[in-house]
UniProtKB/TrEMBL annotation:
<feature type="repeat" description="TPR">
    <location>
        <begin position="190"/>
        <end position="223"/>
    </location>
</feature>
<dbReference type="Pfam" id="PF13181">
    <property type="entry name" value="TPR_8"/>
</dbReference>
<keyword id="KW-0802">TPR repeat</keyword>
<keyword id="KW-0677">Repeat</keyword>
<feature type="repeat" description="TPR">
    <location>
        <begin position="156"/>
        <end position="189"/>
    </location>
</feature>
<dbReference type="Pfam" id="PF07719">
    <property type="entry name" value="TPR_2"/>
</dbReference>
<dbReference type="InterPro" id="IPR011990">
    <property type="entry name" value="TPR-like_helical_dom_sf"/>
</dbReference>
<dbReference type="InterPro" id="IPR013105">
    <property type="entry name" value="TPR_2"/>
</dbReference>
<dbReference type="Pfam" id="PF00515">
    <property type="entry name" value="TPR_1"/>
</dbReference>
<dbReference type="InterPro" id="IPR051012">
    <property type="entry name" value="CellSynth/LPSAsmb/PSIAsmb"/>
</dbReference>
<feature type="repeat" description="TPR">
    <location>
        <begin position="395"/>
        <end position="428"/>
    </location>
</feature>
<dbReference type="InterPro" id="IPR019734">
    <property type="entry name" value="TPR_rpt"/>
</dbReference>
<protein>
    <submittedName>
        <fullName>Tetratricopeptide repeat-containing protein</fullName>
    </submittedName>
</protein>
<dbReference type="Pfam" id="PF14559">
    <property type="entry name" value="TPR_19"/>
</dbReference>
<dbReference type="Pfam" id="PF13432">
    <property type="entry name" value="TPR_16"/>
</dbReference>
Length: 462
């Protein structure tokens, strides 16, 4: 019964915290009163609890056989303190358990000031600062724990929390150092292994991240988050069999739509339209209001030649998310491929100048000019993309210029632009295909062979 009451009180307090920032003034007054009532209840409960614990401690000292071994250890650690310090510590603990960190902090501060060697008080103070995102004070207290604690677990925990603070500050390289120190002391810290792996992942050091997630799985074989990160790491290093193994493992553990979508995108990335379609359709059934599922099925239906079906599904996705810029772009691209030039023009006229100046839309506008036979504007629009400082965006510009020149049957100049696009962003292989095509049209068969031999193989879903 007490646990249920505590959970109910915690829930009510959470509701106050969520409602208060956005509540009108009359509701704020009511919420303040509700908060004061909870605060008063907590103080009364804590006072009674502390009195009860003090009585239990006195009895345990007088009759040691009444206490269990673990209870005797607890009494030995805490009750050598002055009574009022114990009282402050227990009151701070009570507020902390209710996630009232601001109210807990003064009590832990008092404990640390009056009993600076009482380690648990300092740990709770540091955690209270952490929960309130006061990184400087939290770091100072955790650092003191690393220097004063006699028990290795406390030192390991303090280094772990110092790592967490660096993560919150976006300092992953510094976080790696602290997590490593923590594991050097206590190598069974599952969360520390996971956090270390996540740091390496964000630092794009995927080969170093992988073994950390395996260590986390060693300690908890059901840790689906580590499985998911492993699949992401293997995707970055293009080990597709491992990607699919770990994605499937995560899916079996969670059956979560996000995982289903990730698997579908993996098939897309390897050019497996059939596999992508299968998983996007599963996603569409599992989550009928997920617009990205309709977009995914649509895109892959288009790739497989079902253009009418693709357009209908994309329109459903746009109904669910009418302001999604990616879906709108895909819709206009479909219309362009179907030769609906007037419809494309109408959509372009309704778009803002800011959207039209985005590289993606500039490329589409350039292609629209090509379809209209306006090669001058097609090249001028593509050149705006070439001026970008971003290598990939600049590569898109040169690629589009190559496409325009190819339409004009200037294959030699087109080949040069495709080559430049490839040099700017070697990971993107489509310019390589068109460069080979230019060589073929110009009768340079050897050049075509050299280009096309570098194209990746398509991985089957079978």
């Amino acid at each position: 019964m007490f646990q249920q009451w505590l959970e109910q009180l915690t829930k009510e307090l959470g509701e106050i915290g969520e409602s208060y920032p956005h509540a009108p003034e009359p509701d704020r007054s009511r919420l303040k009163e509700e908060f004061k009532e909870i605060q008063l209840i907590c103080e009364n409960v804590l006072e009674g609890w502390i009195t009860l614990e003090e009585q239990m401690a006195l009895m345990a000292k007088k009759y040691p056989e009444l206490a269990t071994e673990s209870a005797q250890e607890d009494i030995g650690e805490e009750f050598w303190l002055e009574g009022h310090v114990v009282r402050s510590f227990r009151q701070g603990q009570g507020y902390y358990q209710l996630k009232m960190f601001g109210e807990a902090k003064p009590y832990f501060n008092r404990v640390v000031q009056e009993a600076p060697d009482f380690l648990l008080g300092r740990v709770y103070l540091a955690l209270s600062y952490f929960q309130q995102q006061n990184w400087e004070e939290a770091s100072k207290e955790f650092y003191l724990v690393t220097k004063t604690a006699e028990h290795s677990r406390f030192v390991s925990f303090a280094y772990h929390m110092l790592g967490c603070i660096h993560v919150q500050k976006g300092e992953d390289e510094l976080a790696v150092r602290q997590f490593t120190r923590s594991l050097d002391i206590h190598e069974e810290g599952k969360d520390t292994w996971f956090n270390l792996g996540a740091c390496y992942y964000r630092l794009r050091n995927y080969p170093e991240a992988i073994p950390q997630f395996f260590q986390s799985l060693r300690l908890d074989p059901d840790d689906w988050e580590s499985m998911y990160y492993l699949s992401c790491c293997y995707k970055e290093v293009e080990q597709w069999e491992s990607v699919r193994f770990w994605r499937s493992a995560v899916y079996k553990k969670t059956n979560h739509p996000i995982v289903m979508e990730s698997i579908a995108k993996d098939f897309e990335d390897t050019g497996d339209v059939e596999g992508a379609l299968r998983w996007y359709q599963k996603l569409m059934i599992a989550d009928p209001k997920r617009a990205s599922a309709y977009h995914g099925v649509s895109w892959n239906k288009w790739a497989s030649g079902d253009h009418d079906g693709a357009l209908l599904l994309l329109q459903k996705g746009l109904t669910l998310e009418p302001h999604n810029k990616e879906y709108l772009f895909t819709y206009v691209w479909y219309l362009l491929q179907q030769g609906e030039l007037k419809k494309v023009e109408k959509v372009l006229q309704r778009l803002s100048d800011e959207m039209l100046s985005h590289p993606q839309w500039l490329i589409l506008r350039s292609r629209w000019h090509v379809h209209c036979g306006d090669f001058t504007n097609a090249k001028a629009t593509a050149r705006q993309v070439v001026d970008s400082q971003d290598p990939y965006t600049c590569s898109l510009g040169y690629y589009q210029l190559g496409r325009v020149l190819l339409e004009q049957e200037d294959v030699k100049e087109a080949a040069k632009h495709f080559h430049t696009a490839l040099q700017l962003f070697p990971q993107w292989k489509e310019p390589l295909f068109y460069q080979g095509l230019c060589y073929l049209l110009d009768g340079e068969i050897e050049g075509t062979r050299q280009c096309w031999e570098q194209l990746p193989m398509i991985i089957s879903s079978d």
